[in-house]
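fwd from M.: "can u put these together and see what the complex looks like"

so here's what she sent:
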Amino acid sequence: MIDFTEEKIQRYSRHILLQDVGVEGQEKIMNARVLVVGAGGLGAPVSLYLAAAGIGTIGIVDADVVDLSNLQRQVIHFTKDVGVPKVKSAEEKIKAINPDVKVDTYYEFLDSSNALDIIKEYDFIVDGTDNFPVKFLINDACVMAGKPFSHGGILRFNGQTFTHLPGTACYRCMFKEPPPVGAVPTCSQAGVLGAIAGMLGTIQAAETLKYFTGIGELLTNRLLTFDAKTMLFRTVPVKHRDSCAICGTNPTIDHLIDYEQATCDLKNH
Amino acid sequence: MAKIYVNGDAQEVNLPLNVSELIQQNNVVQPEMVSVQVNEEFAEREDWENIQLKEGDKVDFLYFMGGGTFIEH
């Protein structure tokens, strides 16, 4: 049981006032353990909103340090943080927003050797990564561990997200395997409008809070996509695929895979 | 002419037309960066040339999206 002091009631009053949340829902949020993989464009807004919401424990995995080019969209990091590990920078801001939140930092890459061990400690996982090998790794590890997760992807003016619960469509049901490494163009061809990361990340944060409070309908078996140029949002129905290699009837993947990663060094562009 | 729906938008197309041809017509620069659903069912990449589209079909191109670092479609 959580002791709702006057200070806590005041801090979370706008949640508590919501009929769908109330004290009970806020307590669920405060008992929740969420893992955010990637403290970048998506992980930043996700972590900020989850911290503000009072999520009990936030784990953050990221092996990078803050780079000047990150600040255009990774709003949890400030100019003074350039060169600092992203997990440390994020932890500092989370604590500043809400000292009640416990923060676990993993200053390492998520790979096949540590993914299951890290994920098993959490109730819900948020994919805020920027590359396909890790997106597939998170998917496979969560399916294997029976953990729910939120997928997020952004590109230029577009974003996409869905939520997976055990039994519902997974990333592999929609995207069978990572694109060939050679097909992934260099950074100079891409880019992203910074605010898109915020749009998508806050959807992921909202899904996380919906999951713990049981409010409404999650983005399961639906892929939400949007194009900020037109501000048209669309949800594409997607199905759990019986032939899926990880969550299908006869899964062929029985271990985690470290796919080869296309490297992208903006400094060379 | 037949009417099909691509990513929710109606398109007039000439039949016969298979999924690979539809991808070309829609100027998808990198088909390897797209996953395709026909009538809400996943379409295996190796079957794209064999899937003939018909009036009223709904085709969705799902694009691979990372974290803002790549892909061109």
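replying to her w this: Confidence is low (pLDDT under 50) at residues 265-269 of chain A.
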